[in-house]
Every structure is written in structure tokens, then in C-alpha cells.
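Reviewers of the previous submission asked for a worked example of the structure-prediction workflow described in the proposal, so we include one complete record here. The input consisted solely of the amino acid sequence. No template or homolog information was supplied to the procedure at any stage.
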Amino acid sequence: MTNILISGASIAGTTTAYWLKRHGFDVTVVERAPAIREGGYKVDIRGAALQVVERMGIMDAVRARSTDMRIATHYDARGRKVATMDAALFGGRTGDDVEIMRGDLNELLYDLTRHDVEYVFGDSVTGIAEDGTVAFERSAPRRFDLVVGADGAHSTTRRIAFGEESRYARDLGHYISICTVPNKLGLDREEAVHAAPGRTANVYSTRQDTSAKALFMWSSEPLAYDHRDIDAQKDLLVKAMRGVEWEVPALLESVRDAADFYFDSVTQIHMDHWSKGRVVLVGDAAYCASPASGQGTSLALVGAYVLAGELAKGGGAAGYEREMRPFVEANQALGPANVKGMVIGSRAALWFQLKMIKLLPHLPGRDRMIDRIAGPIHRAANAISLRKYSE
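From that input alone, the workflow returned the following C-alpha cells.
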């Protein structure tokens, strides 16, 4: 096995490309977008994923592009500050954990591989035959020894090889939307948060960013909508957040003009196996933990490293699944638990949460309280011992 196709130039895709090439494979990456995707939202790199970044030699570059967030401030409906906490604690980060914009990380990973890996942009996989012949939307068919699906939670590769998404998707009962908005609040490395029962709005601006990101999350029954109809999705967001006060009405007006609008259910992917025939899945395509876990990027980095290493040393897909399964399960378990703290169901629970945030710096059991917030994420992020595969 020497000739490998990766579907998707995501974090998982570009990282897999790097490690496969380093192990001596011939690698081609096909990406539906016309170029590497820029921007996006902020993501965390924790635990074992930090080791992967270190072994790639880009840790200094990653830290140089960290978001440098300072504080998270909660506001009431009238715009009054009601509670403030350290941004690292708000994001569940401890120790050497680093936060970076998704687009910045992917750019660094792409730069590592662009001269050694064949990238085909503006195209996508439409079929995979048993002998490894891959059909593309625009390019002529080509034969590969292996196809790696790194094309996200709504993976086309997974659908072709394993069947419809509904067989593997586990809805957590919430939706999320993120986009760029003007920084009218004048935020400087600060998260501004307002929560109402069942709905949360968060606006933040990172270091050296003159704009801001608006993030909305809310509880909901499954919604029917066209994934290609962005205007309809914006209408669903406006409807979901109707009646929420603070800066939300103004933010929703800005959303109408957003060119990078993202809208999706908070969903996990659970599969009994991540490989079938000549296809193997990595990252969100195989084991999406949802944005609520805070571990999607770390799972992608670690999964890519382990997959490439196991293929190189002869463990193959079976070795990859054996090494990764406990780590994936530990991190997926974070999603259902975390989402309950991100979107609060009642006014009484909201009052209690804000009270605890205000009291946290003064509580005698402060360290235990912090461990309750960040401890589960830290333990899940370190729930694997990475092998040093021969290189």
C-alpha cells in the first residue's frame, strides 16, 4: 500500500497527509472548496494533541498564533456585567493547552504539506469501487490503494462506503450557529456572554482581530432544512433567538450580512468500525464528538497521527481502531455533559450558575470547583499514550 487518497483538507485531512508523507506514502488530498478554508472559529489543542503538534515541529508557530483570550464576561438582559471569569477556565483549558483559530491551524498544517503532497481543490469524491478506483465530480477516475475519509461529520466518503448518516448520528438536542460580525462591542480578547433559558449567545474577538465572532447555541427538537439554503438557516436562527435581549437583536441583524455563516445540529457520530474495504475514516467523519465536547480538533490531530503510524508499522486499520477507541469514547462522553452547562434550561439554574461564577474566586474549595469544570476535559484529553512510530 503506497498510494493514498485523503478526502477533505480539514485539520484531520492535512494532519493525516503530513504523517503519511513522512512515513513514505504517496498522498493526494481532494477538497471540495477552492482553497484551504480560512477563518472559522476558535479551537483548543489539549493533552495528547499537544504532543502531536510538538512532533510536527510547529508548536512555536501555534503558540505564536494563539487567541490570547483574557476574560469571559456574562451580561444580563439590560447589558449589566453580572459575572466574570478567566478565559482559560471558561474554555476548560489547563496547563499547556492552547487555543487557536481553526483557519490559522489549518494554514500551518497546509504549509507543512503543500510542497510534498498533491492537493486537488474544487473537486470531490462521488464513488469508490472495490478495486480502489475513485470517481470524482470533475476529475477523471483514479485508482488508490486506500481512501481516507476526512471530510467532516457529514462525510460523503462515509455515506458512500458505510451508508446514510442517520445510521451513525446521535443528536444531542441542540443547534449551533457561528459567523463573523462587526466588533461593535469593542471587545479585546474577551468573550461576552448572555444566556436565557434554553438559549445562549456568545460574542468574542481574539488577538489582532478587528472583527468579532458571534456564536449562538440553543436547545431544539430536530429541524427540517436544506443544508444548501443559507438564508433559510439564518431565518431559523432568528426564530430560535427571538425574544432574547441584551445585544442579541443587533447581532442577528449583522448575521444577515455574514459571508461565513455556519449552522448545524450539535451531533455526534458513533460507529462500530471506522474502516471497510479500501476506506478508513478519521476525525469527525469517524467519531465527531460535537462542538460541545471542545475536543474535536484534538481528536482529529491524534487520530491522524495514530492512523498514519499504524498504517506505516503494519497495524493497519485494526491497530488504529484498537489504539483510538478508548480515547474517542472518553472524549465523546464530554459532549452530552458539557452541553448542559452551555445552554441552561431554566431561570433558576441560570441564577445558580452565575452565582457560582461570582463566588468561585472566594470559595474555600476553589481548586475542587475548578477541577469540576476543567478536570473532565483534561483527563479525557490525556486518555491515550501516544506511541513513537518509526519514521
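Residues 197 and 348 are 9 Å apart (CA to CA). We consider this example representative of the routine output the project will generate in years two and three.
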